[in-house]
């Protein structure tokens, strides 16, 4: 993010803090509210961008290794815990009529493993 965009984001967060906090606030109150709001913003931005990646991947699903063309079957909710909080994604699953195999282009694009519930970053931090 370049400096003008960062300054604009900081100005928007400052406006939110002015609205949320009473005029005489301690530094600790400002710090806690800033931290809370920054996490909310980061989670929303991460979820929004991840859903954009999923939509791009699902727009043109690739062919199955068997040569068949997978057909869209169902959309499932997937929850994943990341540094800024719980992400809720909607991923479409496709089934190949030729071999019966299932594929999720969105999960593949996000490099999610089956049944993964934590991001790799969070897993590494918890392991330290």
Describe the structure.
- The protein has one domain (3-127).
- The longest helix has 33 residues, at 27-59.
- Strands 1-2-3 form a three-stranded antiparallel sheet.
- It has helices spanning 3-20, 27-59, 105-109, 120-127; strands spanning 71-82, 85-95, 102-103.
- The chain has four helices and three strands, in the order ααβββαα.
- The protein has 128 residues and is α+β, with helices and mostly antiparallel strands.
- Helix 1 packs across helix 2.
Compressed to H and E, one letter per element, the order equals HHEEEHH
Low-confidence runs of at least 5 consecutive residues: none
Helix/strand/pairing category: alpha+beta
In helices, the fraction of residues equals 40-55%
* Strand line-up in the sheet with most strands: 1-2-3
- Strand elements, count: 3
* Total separate domains: 1
Summarize this, please?
This protein is of the alpha+beta class.
Question: How are the SSEs ordered, and which strands pair?
Answer:
Elements: H1 3-20, H2 27-59, E1 71-82, E2 85-95, E3 102-103, H3 105-109, H4 120-127
Antiparallel strand pairs: 1-2, 2-3
Helix pairs in contact: 1-2
